[in-house]
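step 3/5: co-fold with nicotinamide-adenine-dinucleotide
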Amino acid sequence: MIQIDDIQSTRIGVVGAGSWGTALAKLLAEKGFDIDFWVFESEVKEQIETLQENRVFLPGYLLPDAIHPFNDIETVVKDKDLVLVVVPSHFMRSVAMQMKPFIAKDAVVVSASKGIENKTHLTMTGILEEILDFLPPENLAVLSGPSFAKEVAAKIPTVVAAASVNDRVARFVQAVFAGPTFRVYVNHDPVGTQIGGAMKNVLAIAAGICDGMNMGLNPRAALITRGLTEMNRLGTRLGADPLTLSGLAGVGDLLLTCTGALSRNYTVGMQIGQGKKLDDIISEMRMVAEGVKTTRSVYNLSRKLGVDLPICNEVYHVLFENYPLEETIQRLMNRSLKHELDGVL
Ligand SMILES: NC(=O)c1ccc[n+]([C@@H]2O[C@H](COP(=O)([O-])OP(=O)(O)OC[C@H]3O[C@@H](n4cnc5c(N)ncnc54)[C@H](O)[C@@H]3O)[C@@H](O)[C@H]2O)c1
Ligand SMILES: O=P(O)(O)OC[C@H](O)CO
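step 4/5: write tokens
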């Protein structure tokens, strides 16, 4: 139940103990909340219990006693006012199915995951709305923006957006998460917030490729700017407000991820730019680079909807069809000449 005037009484479950789930559970526990924490791996549960650390996904940070790890999801989501889901996007559907029998009918469910489902092209709240069909859709929210887990865990000032179609829900989420090093703005555009968060990962792979090839700084700035145009084209086609895409979950996260070496997506791109094969890169990672799967969704969506997304689509060809990088750049540069706002206005 939403009780904005008594935020500290909010009962919270966090589902997903990767780096982001762990950083957010830590942030909430340090705000004084007791956190029931769903951990997929028994190894990670044991580490949190015995060492107060998630050595696999967020090593080096002491986790407060108020974080209680469980491998069973019922304990974590049952009787909670707010459930935060932070699993990789390709697990969102299966995890939502597991949570479904236990979630309270008036719970607020927040997604902090970034991606678009391959088969359905649904956003994360789209999946949650479909599976948790007993919840009022306005009880779904999104937390997104420029936020590397390690920096949040280190209490480096971070600013994000909480999105819900319902202002009261968005402000509830804002009040739960906001703190001296974590500033939260609200908006009412979960679609734009999620399209920004998903597409920036595809564009970060492209930026990493440019940097891996040592192309220089001009192409990266061009890519970020034209990438934003692509976000606007697809986002507005799906109902996003373009102003959301100029905000934290769009431009903010695009800038961070396309320039920050801490980004897994940028790093994947960088390695591709240096000549490594995608399968080899992925097989060496235990964490997710969401942009890889999102590239497929964005490519297929752009074809289905007839939206022109040249950069994202070239990322698809490079990742999944081994297109040579030099030719890809030539192809992007030699397309027909256009007005800057073609396809946006
Ligand atoms: N790490 C960040 O800095 C950051 C910041 C903002 C948003 N995100 C988003 O958060 C989401 C989660 O990413 P992360 O970085 O916390 O994860 P991660 O890459 O650190 O870890 C992978 C996660 O996948 C989980 N997993 C593996 N198999 C699973 C299964 N079968 N079912 C359910 N879960 C399984 C693991 O337990 C682990 O929690 C992603 O969508 C990501 O884009 C991450
Ligand atoms: O490491 P990445 O590329 O998944 O980026 C993490 C966050 O999404 C940055 O906001």
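step 5/5: annotate
Residues 4-188 form a domain with the Rossmann fold fold (CATH 3.40.50.720).
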